[in-house]
């Protein structure tokens, strides 16, 4: 369901969930569940209706996954359509854009005393605390300690690679620059180590001076996809995302555009390296043969695939007992190291619900 961050619409969100739970209750009853079992199953989700704190901390979309063991909620930055699915497996395809290959990048903000790394997608960004970035005390404290002591007693602050002349004799501006250069170099080294192991596009947000120092100190090459020269201190995450995403959009889109072009060419000449037949796509995804899957973001395709007998059945009768075949194909593709692109239906070749590019 769609949710809201602020305004009077926030007060309507619990009512929307109440209506969706009523729909779920009807579908569960139609599937043969007793009233007591339905009450027990939906009780944790029903309790959320009166949880004021829960509704005050939402994103733009909410997904609830409910079974007899637990109720799990995901706040996601997606404009989700309202949908209730009762079936044998969870319906995850509306969340696939969060995992799509054409949306992941990072944003690094650097000021004179702080560096922060964010993980980002085309929808949002969030602070990444998995990498330890250098921290720095204020420039004034850095300078005041050594200049107030006598030369023989002045402590060695910062890194030992700062020349003594800079510590003992330089003016505050010179000392500040030396400490800034050292700090930015330490940040560049930490970021270089991180992205050598997991390379994906990075956008740097910093003022012109710091940006110049960082680019001189780093060796990121093509990983550094763009630079926004502005002091990030006054930017919230929404504004930061709005400035950073345009710097990587063309690069992120290129994978999807290239895959679509390749799919059209292969299908056009009947090359078996691509298929748009649903049974072949589902089968190949289970076998780990799909390198890239292109699927639409529209209605589910209900069915059931038995991998042991290699039999696939489709039709609306499977809505309450089967699974969304495109969602299952996407999960299998991702679990086997493939790439998934979620696109609009009109971008796909005519009369196709999905196209798989095959490894073999």
Which key terms come to mind for this protein?
alpha+beta, Nucleotidyltransferase, domain 5, 60s Ribosomal Protein L30, Chain: A, 3 domains, 5-stranded mixed sheet, 10 helices, 19% strand
Strand coverage percent: 15-25%
Q: Count the strands?
A: 14
Structural class: alpha+beta
What is the CATH architecture descriptor of the largest domain?
Answer: 2-Layer Sandwich
Low-pLDDT ranges? none
Mean pLDDT: 87
Structure write-up:
The chain has 360 residues and is an alpha+beta fold. The protein has three domains: 9-86, no CATH class; 105-252, Nucleotidyltransferase, domain 5; 272-358, 60s Ribosomal Protein L30, Chain: A (2-Layer Sandwich), CATH 3.30.1330.30. Helix content is 39%, strand content 19%. The protein has ten helices and 14 strands. It has helices at 9-30, 35-47, 52-55, 139-148, 164-168, 172-197, 208-217, 237-268, 278-286, 325-335, and strands spanning 61-66, 71-76, 105-110, 115-120, 125-127, 202-206, 224-229, 274-275, 290-296, 302-306, 311-314, 323-324, 339-343, 354-358. The strands form four sheets. It has a five-stranded mixed sheet. A four-stranded mixed sheet has the order 8-14-9-13, sandwiched between helices. A hairpin with a 4-residue loop joins β3 (105-110) and β4 (115-120). The longest helix is centred in the last third of the chain and has 32 residues, at 237-268. The chain is globular and about 80 Å long.
